[in-house]
Amino acid sequence: QVQLVESGGGSVEAGGSLRLSCAVSGYNSRQYCMGWFRQAPGKAREGLAALDSDPSTSYADSVKGRFTIDFDNAKNTLYLQMNNLKPEDTAMYYCAADCSRWRLPPNAADFRYWGQGTQVTVSS
To answer: pLDDT, tens digit, for every residue of 66-122?
Structure first.
């Protein structure tokens, strides 16, 4: 059974940084495809970043240069380092695993497993 558990969310002022973690269990960590998404109230789920075991990475234009996705295979943990945060980054953040298709930016419809989310709030 695949389980994804996010942590690291919180409240931060604009310009600050946060590092999100996603503990992954039950998923094949040799050939993987994982990503980070976010969803603000009343908005569609937005793909932010993805990586696979090639390794390849993909970023949405809205976060390119500010966010970095990384996977520690030894710890089975996916990370999202977020720098220079803006109020518009406020949302629930989700990690996802097992994509059926590689798109730029990542698309939620392509991912099979999801975590429960962690809230990020950025104040101005």
So the answer is: 999 999 989 999 999 999 999 999 999 999 999 988 888 999 999 999 999 999 999
Cα dihedral 23→65→32→119 (10° resolution): 30
Chain centroid to Cα 119, Å, comes to 12
User: Which tokens sit at 44?
Assistant: 């569609």
3-state SS, residue 110: helix
**pLDDT at residue 29 in the model:** 63
Which helix (H) or strand (E) segment holds residue 56: the answer is none
* Cβ neighbours for 96, distance < 8 A, ≥ 6 positions apart: 4, 34, 35, 36, 37, 108, 111, 112, 113, 114, 115
Q: How far is CA 24 from the centre of its chain?
A: 12
Q: Are 92 and 35 in contact (CB under 8 A)?
A: no
Residues 6+ away with beta carbon under 8 Å from 84: 15, 17, 66
